[in-house]
């Protein structure tokens, strides 16, 4: 079943998450129509290879053209229109930057895998539960409702101001008419009656002025209360969700809703500002003793300007945190002289601001970091915000060609810094701009979440550990001295984040049994998840007992092993992986002989082994474990083929494959058959020959059966045998004769 087919079978709450990251940058129609083709391409590799990305983009357009021909024959007008629009988008937007579409599609596929993994987990973790709190959802609805009510109130006040203006014009006309009469005419009874009517009209004007000012004051108060309470909380919640998403958590949404609220409030404040300007205009034409306008208007205008300043300052946000395109799952880790991207948005979307706001990026501006290292940003570091580059028309700017460069300092300063010291240094990317609108000038500043600067890719794992720990432990966006005294983390939250590393990076999260094993490895004992506090040193700095590496280095090596060598097996759920030797024997002891399971090595970095159960003639159960396979061996031979072809030479020199059933009772070929590089019946005949006259060969992993079953069997002897020879031998000779010849 394709990944997209699995996505379509999800519950509605997960489908809503999927809907959030498909937009005009990569429309869902294309994902649906080209599901199998899209999933069969290596978009992640193309994201780092421009030539490969260009080929994939051209092939994608060809695929769209083929779909367009098909729907044209079916006369599906709506789909024809959408496909033409998509084709124009692909050609126009990505032709000059094909790696951008590769990054987008790669990220979409990764998010789908993460959501599928989350859907398969029986229980949500504490962090994810907090992000989906019903109280938060209720507050979001309340904010949207109040913003809409405020907008309506401001518009109604507009009508009151217009009525007041009409009333004053009528008063002004009638008053000037009386003033133009001769003195004798003014003494007439009719004129005196008119003067009484004018006095009544002036009283009404005074009442309406006070009423309008009162309504304006109420609108301003409602905006002030909303900004001070619920809207601020909404923005902080979004920033927290962004932090969690950056370390592998659920995709954060809600920025478009926030933009709508910020924009409507800004429009309402500018509308109130125009109303106050209109009152000032009315004041110049008519004033009187006790006039409320000169008393109240200055205070109200000052409050409106203050609210506008605060609204604009809060609306300037980092929409996408700094990230190297070469490592999309490791944001906020930046390597010197390697380009990174970062995107900012102004949540107040006003057409008057399009291309009028120039944003400047700097690093460590006015900030004292914990080290002597200093950096500058190379590349285009000043750009204008616009509404044309974003699919949803938001007012944003994306820096795509920034590079951090380390400045030369006094001799020897680098040499005094240890490996952990470098990856625990936090730096800040800052952005500043100025908004000039309707006579207001507002200076805006914002910063990225703390980033870690590395100079060698070998520092990436520890740097990423620092990013995880920071964003797990604090919602402070700018605590650059955090690692001077890093706080402990709750074990339950840390385990949840570790599961996210697997779901986001290799497409399948960890179940409760796997997390239990990691908890025991971290603490050395069985503990309560909710109460245990784990230190930063225990996670990333102290070596595991009896080992030469830390817990995090061990776990990161396993992630790398899965990603590069056993990804399909992991996604299918056939790798138990995290299980101790003791638990392994408990699981296997009552199983059919030949039942095996796959687990990660606890003593070797990036190693995977398999253990099977056997039964001696006297009925005793014995266990056999093979020496762990590392990336070197797995680069030469796919792991699924190793499981298929693995042999043990028995005491009588007869080789047998002891692996029959994957735990608990899945026939081996049923579990791994689709991952074999070739089926046994597809092995070539001797007449097929090989390239350049050579007969093709195949490696067969073989172990010698040791008497001491506690020692791992070594797979180091990989005996070369051509597929054609092996096929002929299997057809004409018994297994005993074959292995005698091999021996």
From TrEMBL:
Please indicate if the UniProt record lists Nucleus as a keyword.
yes
Return the GO cellular component terms, semicolon-separated.
cytoplasm; nucleoplasm
Q: What are the protein's UniProt keywords?
A: Acetylation, Activator, ADP-ribosylation, Coiled coil, Cytoplasm, DNA-binding, Isopeptide bond, Methylation, Nucleus, Phosphoprotein, SH2 domain, Transcription, Transcription regulation, Ubl conjugation
Name of protein: Signal transducer and activator of transcription
Protein's organism: Gymnorhina tibicen (Australian magpie)
Cite the CDD domains for this sequence.
SH2_STAT4, STAT4_CCD, STAT4_DBD
Tell me the compartments it is located in: Cytoplasm; Nucleus
Classification lineage: Eukaryota, Metazoa, Chordata, Craniata, Vertebrata
Family (UniProt) = Belongs to the transcription factor STAT family.
Residue ranges of domain SH2 in the record: 570-672
Q: Which GO terms fall under molecular function for this chain's record? A: DNA binding; DNA-binding transcription factor activity, RNA polymerase II-specific
**Ribonucleoprotein in keyword set:** no
Q: Which GO terms describe its biological process?
A: cell surface receptor signaling pathway via JAK-STAT; defense response to virus; negative regulation of developmental process; regulation of apoptotic process; type I interferon-mediated signaling pathway; type II interferon-mediated signaling pathway
Q: Which InterPro entries match?
A: p53-like_TF_DNA-bd_sf, SH2, SH2_dom_sf, STAT, STAT4_CC, STAT4_DBD, STAT4_SH2, STAT_linker
């Amino acid at each position: 079943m394709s990944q997209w087919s699995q996505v379509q079978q999800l519950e509605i709450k997960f489908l809503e998450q999927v809907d959030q990251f498909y937009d005009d940058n990569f429309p869902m129609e294309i994902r649906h129509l080209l599901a199998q083709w899209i999933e069969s391409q290596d978009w992640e590799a193309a994201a780092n290879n421009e030539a490969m990305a260009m080929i994939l983009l051209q092939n994608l357009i060809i695929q769209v053209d083929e779909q367009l021909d098909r729907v044209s024959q079916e006369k599906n007008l709506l789909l024809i229109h959408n496909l033409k629009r998509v084709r124009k988008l692909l050609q126009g937007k990505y032709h000059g930057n094909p790696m951008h579409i590769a990054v987008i599609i790669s990220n979409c596929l990764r998010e789908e895998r993460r959501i599928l993994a989350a859907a398969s987990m029986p229980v949500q973790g504490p962090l994810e539960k907090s992000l989906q709190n019903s109280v938060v959802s209720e507050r979001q609805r309340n904010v949207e409702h109040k913003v809409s009510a405020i907008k309506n109130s401001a518009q109604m006040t507009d009508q009151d101001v217009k009525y007041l203006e009409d009333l004053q014009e009528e008063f002004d006309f009638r008053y000037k008419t009386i003033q133009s009469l001769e003195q004798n005419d003014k003494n007439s009874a009719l004129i005196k009656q008119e003067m009484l009517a004018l006095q009544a009209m002036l009283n009404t004007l005074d009442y309406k002025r006070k009423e309008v000012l009162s309504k304006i004051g109420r609108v301003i108060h409602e905006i002030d209360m909303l900004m001070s309470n619920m809207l601020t909380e909404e923005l902080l919640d979004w920033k927290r969700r962004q932090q969690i998403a950056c370390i592998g958590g659920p995709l954060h949404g809600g920025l478009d809703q926030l933009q709508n609220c910020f924009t409507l409030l800004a429009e309402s404040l500018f509308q109130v500002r125009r109303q106050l300007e209109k009152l000032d205009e009315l004041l110049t034409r008519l004033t009187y003793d006790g006039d409320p306008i000169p008393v109240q208007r200055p205070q109200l205008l000052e409050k409106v300007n203050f609210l506008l300043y605060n609204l604009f300052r809060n609306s300037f946000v980092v929409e996408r945190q700094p990230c190297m395109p070469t490592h999309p799952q490791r944001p906020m880790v930046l390597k010197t002289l390697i380009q990174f991207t970062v995107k900012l948005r102004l949540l107040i979307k006003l057409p008057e601001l399009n291309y009028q706001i120039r944003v400047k990026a700097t690093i460590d501006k006015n900030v004292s970091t914990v080290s002597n290292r200093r950096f500058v940003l190379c590349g285009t570091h000043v750009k204008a915000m616009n509404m044309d580059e974003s699919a949803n028309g938001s007012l944003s700017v994306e820096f795509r060609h920034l590079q951090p460069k380390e400045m030369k300092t006094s001799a020897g300063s680098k040499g005094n810094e240890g490996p952990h010291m470098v990856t625990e240094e936090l730096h800040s990317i800052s952005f500043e701009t100025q908004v000039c609108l309707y006579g207001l000038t507002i200076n805006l500043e914002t910063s990225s979440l703390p980033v870690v600067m590395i100079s060698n890719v070998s520092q990436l794992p520890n740097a990423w550990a620092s990013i995880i720990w920071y964003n797990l432990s604090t919602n402070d966006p700018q605590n650059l001295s955090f690692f001077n005294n890093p706080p402990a983390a709750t074990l339950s939250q840390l385990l949840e984040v570790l599961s996210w590393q697997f779901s986001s990076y290799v497409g399948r999260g960890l179940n409760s049994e796997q997390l239990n094993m990691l908890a025991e490895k971290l603490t050395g004992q069985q503990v309560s998840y909710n109460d245990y506090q784990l230190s930063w040193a225990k996670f990333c700095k102290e070596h595991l007992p009896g080992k030469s590496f830390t817990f995090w280095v061990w776990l990161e090596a396993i992630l790398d092993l899965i990603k590069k060598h056993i990804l399909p097996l992991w996604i299918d759920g056939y790798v138990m992986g995290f299980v101790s030797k003791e638990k392994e024997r408990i699981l296997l002891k009552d199983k059919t002989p030949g039942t095996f399971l796959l687990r990660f090595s606890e003593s070797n970095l990036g190693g995977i082994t398999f253990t099977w159960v056997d039964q001696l003639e006297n009925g005793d159960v014995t266990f056999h474990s093979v020496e762990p396979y590392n990336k070197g061996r797995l680069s030469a031979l796919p792991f699924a083929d190793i499981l298929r072809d693995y042999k043990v030479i028995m005491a009588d020199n007869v080789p047998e494959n002891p692996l029959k059933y994957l735990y608990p009772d899945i026939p081996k070929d049923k579990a791994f058959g689709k991952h074999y590089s070739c089926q046994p019946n597809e092995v070539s005949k001797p007449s097929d020959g090989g390239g350049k006259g050579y007969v093709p060969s195949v490696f067969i992993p073989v172990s010698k059966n040791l008497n001491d079953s506690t020692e791992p069997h070594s797979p180091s002897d990989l005996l070369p045998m051509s597929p054609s020879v092996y096929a002929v031998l299997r057809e004409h000779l018994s297994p005993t004769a074959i292995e005698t010849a091999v021996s």
